[in-house]
Each structure stands twice: as structure tokens, then as C-alpha cells.
Specification:
The chain is an alpha/beta fold. It is built from 21 helices and 15 strands. It has 2 domains: about 250 residues, TIM Barrel, CATH 3.20.20.330; about 160 residues, Dihydropteroate synthase-like (TIM Barrel).
Length: about 500
């Protein structure tokens, strides 16, 4: 039985219990700077206190003891101590070059502990934690300079690739992309993970967990939860859900929202309350589990655990409650193995739109006098005026913003201003270009499930599928231009032959 099959078998019968906060337990140990440094980093020039992931190299016994305390409490899945094990996050400690090594060590420590507790016939699993980094690709660090970025896709993708590679090499069963506050970051991580899994020809379950910003129900980068889900389901995740953010009561309505739309397993691991003025979480294990019980009674989730402030006693109490209820049922027609649900009518920017006739609505958004004026301003490089025109188009009912250009500089110049305007960014974009480099540049900037193309058969079938698959991996829908019934049938046959999802194609 594969890891996926084993997990799915358990998930059909009961809740899977995720562990609690690694950082909260480490903090309670009051480790010294010397503990973090160990012998290997005794002379490292930068302070290392608080670099929890480094303990996987310098104090692996401490990390193992924490894992084992959660396993003893009843956790089925333990997370690796690798939340900040990307070169981006570790660079603040001068340790960016050790991202792979720390990731691998984190997974090895968790693997050893999980195997120790699996010996009694109750399988335990390791989730490789992939954190968001402290930088967002959609966040504007300087509103007076829209072109300035804190970080870009390529840097994120490279960092996530090494992080995931180390976690898999160390023995992780699951890859968990968590505490997502910016969907572009998440899409870069998913792209890196998809590339890695394809290279290795392995089927590792992927979990995706977002963090809402306060009580808005949106990510920090502005997307609402439905738009977020539409943006990440192209990878057919094993589970999607929410973590951190809020205490169980305040997170519950957002978990409910995810539960209503997710075509896969749903996870939730909220904070144990909110920190007081001393930074301490005051929600006791009994309080925490009683609040979480509401999730269990409603059948909102399949995987449940704790985030900041939660400890092994919190998870032990949670496991007791979970044993009394049945997990969330998978939506009708969807199995825990196959999450390829039709999303033909759903596109998104910061928000979603549902479309009954894709081709007609695309045409109505592109073949208008306003669109022609918008493209004129775009071509002139009058980006701020083009954004104003785009906003007027949205206010007048345009479902998409059709950005038609073969010039990458023009595209990026417009997006610098457009994505800063929530009234424009709320709708999906069409990256309308015959140049794949321009299309990719646009898709690396967009949070939502947009449209890109047009693709044609002029370069042959294999090149067509290659481009369509690349567009899908970037989280977008491929726009395809076909001529007549013969080409339409050719397209349908080609998609079936290559296993390409028909819901990821728009024919115009």
C-alpha cells in the first residue's frame, strides 16, 4: 500500500490528527545561543538564537523529543522543523547555503521518530513543512515605486525546490505548503514541487494551507478564499485548508467556507488563542479542544491539529474529542484519490467569477471600444491611464482584463500598476500573447486562475501540449484558437490522448 493509499484509507474512517506547534515548545525550553550554535557554528558571525530549524543540525535530540511527545499525544502526522528552511528565510542568519542540508536533517529527525511509533502497527506520517518566507511576491514594499518587488517568482521557485528536495531526501511522506499569505508565493512553491515530483516520477501527497489576514477572510495579498482555492487546485492537492491566523472560534467560519468548496480533504490547525502582551498563548488544552469540537460536530474537516501556542497536551485533548466524531465526507462524485473536479466555469483574480459560456464572455470582454482604448493606452506605455480605463471596464461589467501584447516590458509595466489597484486586480486577466516568454512573465505575477494564449497547432501537436501543460502548471487556463469542426475534434482527441484536463482549455 502506498503512502497516499494508506492515508486515504485512514481518512475515510476517522480524523487524521496533525501535531501542534514546534516553535511554541522550543520556546518553552528556553535554549541559549550556545544551544543553537552547537560546536559546528560556534564561530558563526551572526546571532543564531531563534533559528529553530538549525536545531535539526545542532540539537537533533531536542527536535526528536518534541516529535515523540506529539506522537505520544496521538498525532498521526508530524511536521518537520523546517518552516524556515528555505535559502530566503535562512539568509537572515547567514545560513542560506545550508537550506538543503537543514531541510534533509529536519525530515530525517521526523522520519526516525515516526518510524519508532509506527512499529506498533499504527502508521505515523511525516509532513515536510514548507513555510511562506517573510517576503511576498504580490506585496508592494514601496507604494511610490510600483515596479519594486520584495521578491520575485524565480527566486522563490529555486528556494522552494531545494527545500522540497531536502525534505523528500530526508524521508518526508507529505509536502505541506503552509501559512500561505501570498498566492503567488504558493504557486511558485507548487510549481517547484510539481517539477520535482515529475523529475522523480513519484506521487507524493501535497497539502496546501493558507492563513487569513485577521477577520477579513482574505489572505494578506488580498485574495478571498474561493479565489485562493481556484488558484491552487490545478495541482490536485491531497488536502487544502487553513492554519494559524486566529483562534478556533474565529477561524471556524473560514474553515466552513473552504469545506463547502474543496474537492479534496480539508485540514485546519488554528492557534491556541491569541498571544497576550507577554507573547503567551493562554488557551488551555481543554479550552482549545472544546472550541475545535465545533469543527468535528459539523464535519468540516478531515485533518485537524494545532498551530501557534498548541502543545502536546493540546493535541492529546484534541485526539480524544476527534475519536467521538466522523470526519468530513468527500463531496459527491469525488473520491479521496481523484480530485480532478471540473472547474470550467471558475476564474479568479482577487475574487472569482463563474462563467457559463467562456468563449462568448471572453469575446464580450475583448471586442469592445473600451478594450481597444485600453490597448491603445497600453501600447503607448501610458500604464496609469490604462489602469484607469481597465477600472472603468470592470465597473461597466467586463469579466476579464484582456492584456494583449507581445512585449514583456509593456506587460510588466502595466501589471506593476494594475495589481496595486484592488478594483482592477479583483477580476481575472487574459494574458493575450503569441510569445510564450511574455505569457510566462505574466503568469509569474498573477495570483488568480487567469487565461493565457492563444495556442495553435502551427508548431505541431507535441509543442502544443508542452505549452498547454506549462500554462496549467502556472495555474492558468490555456486559450486555444481552433478553426472549424475538424480542428475542434483534433483538439479533443489530443487532450484525451495526453491526459490533459479538458477543464483547463478555453476554445475561442
Amino acid at each position: 500500500m502506498t503512502v497516499r493509499e494508506n492515508l486515504n484509507s485512514i481518512a475515510q474512517k476517522r480524523f487524521l490528527i496533525l501535531d501542534g506547534a514546534m516553535g511554541s515548545v522550543i520556546q518553552s525550553l528556553r535554549l541559549s545561543e550556545k544551544d543553537f550554535r552547537g560546536e559546528k557554528f560556534a564561530n558563526h558571525p551572526a546571532p543564531l538564537g531563534g533559528c529553530n530549524d538549525l536545531l535539526c543540525l545542532t540539537k537533533p535530540d531536542v527536535i526528536a523529543s518534541i516529535h515523540e511527545s506529539y506522537l505520544q499525544a496521538g498525532a498521526d502526522i508530524i511536521e518537520t522543523c523546517s518552516f524556515n528552511s528555505t535559502s530566503i528565510s535562512l539568509s537572515s542568519y547567514g545560513l542560506g547555503h545550508l537550506a538543503y542540508d537543514i531541510s534533509a536533517a529536519a525530515a530525517k529527525a521526523a522520519r526516525k521518530s515516526a518510524d519508532k511509533f509506527s512499529a506498533n502497527g499504527s502508521p505515523r506520517f511525516v509532513a515536510g513543512s514548507i513555510g511562506p518566507t517573510a517576503k511576498g511576491a504580490s506585496i508592494y514594499p514601496d507604494v511610490n515605486n510600483p515596479a519594486k518587488r520584495g521578491i520575485c517568482w524565480d527566486e522563490l521557485e529555486a528556494a522552494y525546490y531545494d527545500n522540497a528536495r531536502g525534505l523528500l531526501d530526508g524521508g518526508a511522506d507529505i509536502l505541506l505548503i503552509e501559512t500561505i499569505f501570498d498566492t503567488v508565493n504558493a504557486k511558485a512553491a507548487l510549481f517547484a514541487v510539481s517539477r520535482l515530483l515529475k523529475e522523480r516520477n513519484i506521487d507524493t501527497p501535497v497539502m496546501i494551507s493558507a492563513a487569513v489576514s485577521g477577520e477579513s477572510g482574505r489572505l494578506l495579498s488580498g485574495q478571498n478564499l474561493k479565489a485562493f482555492c481556484s488558484s491552487v487546485l490545478h495541482v490536485n492537492p491531497w488536502a487544502v485548508g487553513l492554519n494559524c491566523s486566529l483562534n478556533p472560534q474565529k477561524l471556524m467560519p473560514f474553515v466552513r467556507e473552504i469545506s463547502e468548496i474543496a474537492p479534496c480533504l480539508v485540514s485546519a490547525y488554528p492557534n491556541a488563542g491569541l498571544p497576550n502582551r507577554l507573547g503567551q498563548y493562554e488557551e488551555t488544552p481543554e479550552m482549545f479542544s472544546s472550541y475545535i469540537e465545533g469543527y468535528l460536530k459539523e464535519g468540516l474537516v478531515n485533518i485537524i491539529g494545532g498551530c501557534c501556542g498548541s502543545t502536546p497536551p493540546h493535541i492529546a485533548e484534541l485526539a480524544k474529542k476527534a475519536a467521538l466524531y466522523k470526519p468530513r465526507a468527500i463531496p459527491a462524485g469525488i473520491t479521496v484519490v481523484n480530485t480532478d473536479v471540473s472547474r470550467r466555469t471558475i476564474f479568479s483574480g482577487l475574487e472569482t467569477i463563474n462563467i457559463a459560456d467562456n468563449a462568448a464572455l471572453i469575446k464580450s470582454s475583448t471586442d469592445t471600444a473600451a478594450n481597444k482604448e485600453f490597448l491603445r493606452l497600453l501600447g503607448e506605455g501610458s500604464y496609469e491611464d490604462a489602469v484607469d480605463e481597465a477600472r472603468d471596464m470592470v465597473d461597466n461589467g467586463a469579466a476579464f482584463i484582456n492584456v494583449e501584447t507581445n512585449d514583456e516590458k509593456t506587460l510588466n509595466g502595466f501589471l506593476d500598476f494594475a495589481l496595486m489597484n484592488p478594483y482592477v486586480a479583483k477580476v481575472p486577466f487574459i494574458i493575450n500573447s503569441t510569445d510564450m516568454n511574455v505569457i510566462i512573465a505574466g503568469l509569474k505575477r498573477l495570483q488568480g486562475r487567469c487565461i493565457a494564449g492563444p495556442l495553435t497547432f502551427k508548431d505541431g501537436e507535441s509543442e502544443f501540449i508542452k505549452k498547454a501543460e506549462l500554462i496549467r502548471l502556472y495555474g492558468a487556463v490555456a486559450m486555444v484558437s481552433v478553426q472549424g469542426q475538424k480542428e475542434a475534434q483534433k483538439l479533443s482527441d489530443l487532450l484525451k490522448k495526453n491526459g490533459y484536463p479538458e477543464d483547463n482549455i478555453v476554445v475561442v
